[in-house]
Amino acid sequence: AIKTCNLALEAADQYYVPVNKTWRLNERMYGGLTGAHRPPEERGPLQVQIWRRSFDIPPPALEKENKYHPCHEAKYADLDPKDLPDTECLKDTIARVMPYWEETIAPALKAGKTVFVAAHGNSIRAIVKMIEGLSDDVIPGLEIPTGTPLVYELDKDLKPLPTSLAVEPLKFGRYLGDAEKIRAAAEAVKNQTKVG
Question: What family is it from (predicted)?
Answer without folding.
Answer: Belongs to the phosphoglycerate mutase family. BPG-dependent PGAM subfamily.
